[in-house]
Amino acid sequence: MTSAPHPPLPSPCQLVAELRSTLPHFKQIQWLERTESTNADLLSMARARGGPQARPWLLGSHLQEHGRGRAGRRWQNRPGANLMFSCAFDVFVAPQRLPTLSPLAGLAACEALRELIEARHRGHMTMKWPNDVQWHSAKLAGILVEVTRAGASRLSPDHYVVIIGMGLNLDDARALSLSLNRQVADWSEIARQDKQAAAVSAAGLVAQVAQAWYTSLNEATAYGFDALPVRYAQVDALAGQHINVLDDGRIAQAGIASGINSFGQLLLRTPEGEQSISIGEVSVRPRQEHAP
Question: Which CATH number describes the domain made up of 242-284?
Fold first, then answer.
């Protein structure tokens, strides 16, 4: 089934107006025609002396000239084909919990986007650890999470500013799949199959995800991360699959994916027992391979 082209993005002014009406608790909302990187821009703002301190913030751009993904990868984008935005939030967590924010951000985004499609299709939208959102096992959105000190406005030793950036494909999935040599999905593909998804505006997509991040981070601050494994199990793209965990292109671990723990680490069943994986790229092994 071919994708229905996604409508052109509204102007930055129109996007800001709609986002401000749906996210009134966000202290600063901006949308630009172009910038180097929305994550980098918000990191600079968070670190600046005398800069704005009341958060959360949201910054989007029709084009990011040096948009970044995980592991230093560049995010390919063109105006109108991608939704590119970042949010900055205050978090109050112990330092050892900071890595948990990356899978939490992916989980919250996946849950939020599921709510925008019909119930019968929600099982096709999943999360691949650590935080990729997938549609039918093809990458729909990538997320980059960065953390910095709260600077002069720091309220307590466990006070940090987390910057969460997201690139969501609206169109161009076929071209990106050929360019990247892997399967990529876009929202227009989902909208072609799902009337509820087709009715969602660009600002609606951004607001849904931004609000989910805000709520999930507040809940983590208040209640901790104990619910993370159960939530993840509902959207887990890897459960029960034989996978390789790659480090710098080399296989570092291999086993059967078994969910995550409350630290957001990937659990891997291996002949040596269960392993907890904190970093690495996951590759699903061909079906003909046998269990380790």
Answer: 2.30.30.100
Query: If we measure between CA atoms, which residue out of 215, 218, 250 comes closest to residue 108?
Result: 215
CA–CA distances in Å: residue 84 to residues 3, 99, 115, 168, 238: 20, 22, 20, 7, 26
* Residue in the structure block whose two tokens are 């392993």: 275
pTM score of the predicted model: 0.90
Ranges of H-type helices in the chain? 12-22, 38-47, 101-114, 173-180, 187-193, 195-198, 202-223, 228-233
Q: Is the peptide bond before 99 cis (omega within 30 degrees of 0)?
A: no
pLDDT tens profile 72-85: 555 566 777 899 99
Judge whether residue 257 has pLDDT over 60: yes
Question: What does the alpha-carbon distance between residue 290 and residue 190 come to, in Å, rounded to a whole number?
Answer: 34
* CATH topology (fold) of 12-233: BirA Bifunctional Protein; domain 2 (3.30.930)
Tokens encoding 78: 């063109």
